[in-house]
Give the backbone structure.
Amino acid sequence: MKRIAFVLVPAAILGALVLAFTTSVSRYATAQGAAPTFVKKIPAGYRDWKVVSVAHEAGDLNDIRAVLGNNIAIKAYREGKLPFPEGAIVGRIAWSYVSSEENNKVFGRDQSFVAGPPTETYLQFMVKDSKKYAATGGWGYSSFDKDGKPTDEAAMKACFPCHQAIKDRDFVFTKYAP
Amino acid sequence: MKRIAFVLVPAAILGALVLAFTTSVSRYATAQGAAPTFVKKIPAGYRDWKVVSVAHEAGDLNDIRAVLGNNIAIKAYREGKLPFPEGAIVGRIAWSYVSSEENNKVFGRDQSFVAGPPTETYLQFMVKDSKKYAATGGWGYSSFDKDGKPTDEAAMKACFPCHQAIKDRDFVFTKYAP
């Protein structure tokens, strides 16, 4: 019994050391832009989040969207605080932009455009973690289709360069609609 | 003391009778379309409600809108249950539909339409109370400008006739966007 205890204790310490070392290396790599800038997991409960604003993107996107925020993001938005605090997540759901025949019939004219089926980049999120995503302004970007499949990484490389245009608002395009 | 008690008890009974009678008359009047079908109070906390869907109304309305629901309404929507249960409230916030110069500059083309200032009928709600609003399909309608001022009653008379077109879905136009 004494020998087993002797082996187990150092193993636990070794495990902790390896973990600490791995974390440290991972953070260093991220800061150098060599490691994860894309998030591969859909945040739990996003469909229950509060509304930041809504928008219609015409052209190739041709969607109608709701921009939502988790509680950390919404609080910062409402208080007008920038940069967004750690843990803030801004998400957007994009549905295809479709004319509603049903509504138009009632109105007597073509005026109503509603949310249709999910678009190819149905869900997108920006996750604030200044250390982990230091290489991309402190935000990790993610994008998913309706089945939860992440958008391919080549396309994801366009996120940050585009969001850089709005660096003054901590890289977040959408303003809070009161 | 005995005399006071004698007077008080019948007064309480009388009060209860008057209340019962008034309620009965009020319900009868409502059922005849002669009493309150319009709601004059903005539901507390509506801005924190969950998203039902989003839409763009072109034409005279020219708005972009978020349709939200209180917890009772959202639960019914998600379970696909009709009619909506008592206490359900469906709300919509309508912002003016504006082109975003800022976004368009980044995209390099005119494609981005966002939420601008509140419209004249900024907030609208349908409140489910089958008895109180029996004359209008069990829903009480309300509408407010950005300062919380109710829309005038003449205009409000158009709510129910229009929503009647969608009686099959319990008078609610907006479908839940998953």
